[in-house]
Request: fold
Amino acid sequence: MSIRAVVIGSLNMDLTVRVDQLPGEGETLMASSSTELPGGKGGNQAAAIGKLGVPTAMIAKVGNDAYGERLKGSLQSCGVDTSGVLVSEHPTGMAMITIDREGRNHIVVIPGANGDLTCEDIDSQRHLIEQAEVVVLQLEIPYETAVYALALAKRLGKRTVLNPAPARTLAPEVLANVDMLIPNEHELQTITGIAPVNEERLLEAAGKLAEQGTAAMIVTLGSAGCGLVRSGKLQMFEAVRVAAADTTAAGDSFIGGYVAELLESGDDEQAIRYAIEAAAVTVTRYGAQQSLPTRSEVEAFHRPS
Reply:
């Protein structure tokens, strides 16, 4: 089966502890539990697309260690082609996650092997990109590698999606290679210096990016839903109200849902509504990749009871 989506990005083992409340500066808390689960923004987004039934491949780097094998195995169980997951001499990346009883989190990422993914590695997996219709990236790999991959994908005529996380300023030549930018509200503020506290400010931030080459943008706003900005016009979408257990992979699930449904329908608005529902299912569960829904689970969530 031909690859329809390629995700280029990070793979981390998530080391998670659960507490009643997030710690303050200098505060020591006792955790109620701890887990080791597959994660990383790149891996989560690839798993999200794969679990929704879209043939997906991952390009990434892991260490020659048990965590690396577990991460590849998790992707494979989600239907993701891992032939593009290469091996580094450095250990597999990790993320240290603290989650409180409301599902809020603090995350610290240790890049490890993710920092070794090079432009030459991207070239070596060009055959995967050539097969795909959509190429998805984040910024948990070296910036120059992400920039190179976006440019290559556009030269090959692919649709590109960039989740600019962790946030940083983006050069106009980078933005020009992005068909859909998907930041959250905090990332948008870091990139533009404008806090999207209302629709007027959101449009101001989007306009600043449009001047630099951004074709279109979806800003995720947590419980406030999200906004689609195209051609200077803003369309808001409401969030689905659920009791959140763990918001760790919410944004990754949204992106996976958006890409999967975009490939099925070709319609941005339909893809966004689907992505909102996929993310709503995800936050009712614990973990990252294990919390991601299948297409039948999203459809069951959508269907009135």
